[in-house]
Write a structure and sequence with these properties.
Blueprint: H1 3-9, H2 18-46, H3 58-87, H4 89-109, H5 112-140, H6 149-177, H7 180-201, H8 218-240, H9 249-269, H10 276-299, H11 305-312, E1 317-318, E2 321-322, H12 331-350, H13 357-373, H14 388-416, H15 422-444, H16 452-472, H17 474-480
Antiparallel strand pairs: 1-2
Helix pairs in contact: 2-3, 2-5, 2-6, 2-7, 3-4, 3-5, 3-9, 3-15, 4-5, 4-7, 6-7, 6-12, 9-15, 10-13, 10-14, 10-15, 10-16, 10-17, 12-14, 13-14, 13-16, 14-15
């Protein structure tokens, strides 16, 4: 019996393979470190030096945060390619986790912009590699048709949200009581714990997790390595010469991801390997790609505009104690833990009567725009005067919008994918998130606490407008989808 078969028949973790506990743990600690760091990163960048920060202009600081998030999702595409062609998912995940820990240590120990540069690059590339491969390895733990699979993924995603909930709470306390670098240090410790338990449990994952599905021929490895080295050298040169700098980083990432996305679509649509039906389905994905990018350009402002709003406009006083800025980042994971099963059960109960995928995209985009309009009643209320309950309500709308669109995006990309381009279509879904996340930083450059109404109303209404246009196009899109619901 192969080790993969043994793994798939294992029931030692609450009826599931023991490897699931290992992946649950590494993903929980990675999300702990990622969201813990992200909860304090924006204010670290724009707080004055005497407050322990770097003193950057707020618009540059928020642009960097958005660009960083865009790079994480862009790196997920790279991580998937490395696993498919070079190392396999298991080894790619391990090296990605090591890189994340190095990044957090750099943020904790290296002073100034050097720590930010080294730390964020390492964490972005590592998180992207881990994100794209942890989910794939969970899938290898179950045989085809295993009824435990959906429950296994539910347990795994509980780890994601548990880490996302606890991380900002602890790093926020560390930042307010001691300083930013202890907060970053806690993120490093969390990732070290995740890496340690993962290392001890690697043997529980089986041979299938180590397979390289589509190995790169030996003759192509040297050119691929050379191209990667040249790309890294070019990026370093652009940074050192100041062509790419904190002020324009968000623009650079937005343009880079946009060009890569267009190139991906063109490669697939012009390929001779796809049928007329498959080409039609790829075309149907374009309006959903745009809607997804618009959605995430608002949703990911939790870590740009909403972070600045929490710092400067939210009344964070609780019984005479001021809540850390990062704690607001823990609200969304709680709502996801509570409402994701409810919405999943609702879609299951509705069966064929549930909204079509394009309609779910409409709901997600419109609700996301509406969430930004909910900031308008609090405009002009004064410094740190907006009630925290209002923010909780707004983030509840964020969550419901997310649950309408985000989970179905990945599923849709696999349903519409041509047989010859399955991985690339999943990559396109990640690229829509990458583009939107980078845009969340670019848009944040136009936000000002002194003149909020134009920002919130414009961004909210544009998103609602995109949702309405998508709604009007549903009959045409569903025709292009050729039977995919």
């Amino acid at each position: 019996m192969s080790t993969s078969t043994e793994v798939q028949q294992d029931t030692r973790f609450f009826g599931h393979p023991r490897g699931l506990a290992n992946l649950f743990g590494v993903e929980m600690w990675e999300r702990f470190s990622y969201y813990g760091m992200l909860g304090i990163l924006p204010i670290y960048l724009y707080y004055k030096v005497e407050q322990g920060g770097l003193g950057l202009a707020q618009e540059s600081a928020l642009g960097i945060v958005g660009a960083y998030g865009g790079l994480v999702y862009l790196s997920a595409v790279v991580g998937a390619w490395v696993a498919d062609r070079l190392l396999g998912s298991e080894r790619t995940l391990f090296y990605s986790a090591v890189l994340i820990m190095i990044g957090h240590v750099s943020l904790a120990l290296l002073p100034g912009l050097a720590g930010i540069g080294v730390g964020l690059v390492c964490v972005a590339v590592g998180s992207g590699g881990l994100k794209s491969n942890a989910t794939a390895i969970v899938g290898t733990l179950y045989a085809e048709g295993d009824e435990r699979r959906d429950a296994g993924f539910t347990i795994f995603y509980m780890g994601v949200n548990l880490g996302g909930f606890v991380g900002p709470l602890l790093t926020g306390i560390a930042q307010t009581e001691v300083g930013f670098h202890l907060g970053f240090g806690l993120a490093a410790i969390g990732m070290a714990l995740g890496l340690t338990q993962y290392t001890f449990g690697r043997k529980n994952l089986g041979d299938k997790a180590k397979e390289v599905p589509n190995p790169l021929p030996a003759s192509q490895r040297a050119p691929a390595l050379g191209a990667a080295v040249l790309l890294v050298a070019a990026i370093v040169a652009l940074v050192l010469t100041g062509v790419v700098n904190p002020g324009n980083l968000a623009d650079v990432v937005v343009w880079a991801v946009g060009v890569i996305s267009v190139a991906y679509f063109l490669v697939i649509l012009t390929s001779g390997k796809i049928t007329a039906v498959e080409r039609s389905r790829v075309l149907s994905f374009i309006p959903m790609f745009i809607a997804s990018a618009v959605f995430f350009s608002l949703y990911q402002q939790q870590f740009t505009v909403v972070a600045a709003y929490t710092d400067q406009r939210l009344n964070r006083s609780l019984f005479g104690w001021e809540m850390p800025v990062s704690w607001v980042s823990s609200i969304n994971p709680v709502f996801i833990i509570v409402f994701a099963p409810i919405l999943a059960a609702l879609w299951t109960k509705l069966g064929e009567r549930q909204p079509s995928t394009p309609m779910k995209f409409v709901l997600g985009t419109v609700l996301m725009g509406a969430a930004f309009l909910l900031f308008l009643p609090m405009v002009g209320s004064g410094k740190n005067a907006s009630p925290i309950l209002a923010m909780v309500g707004i983030l509840f709308v964020f969550t419901i919008a997310e649950l309408c669109l985000s989970p179905v995006g990945l599923s849709l990309s696999t349903k519409l994918a041509p047989a010859a381009f399955r991985t690339q279509m999943v990559a396109l879904n990640f690229l829509s998130i990458s583009f939107g996340t980078a845009m969340s930083g670019k848009l944040a450059e136009y936000y000002s606490v002194d003149d909020e109404a134009p920002y919130f109303s414009t961004v909210g209404l544009v998103a609602i407008g995109v949702g309405v246009l998508l709604f009007l196009g549903i009959p045409f899109i569903r025709k292009l989808m050729k039977g995919v619901h």
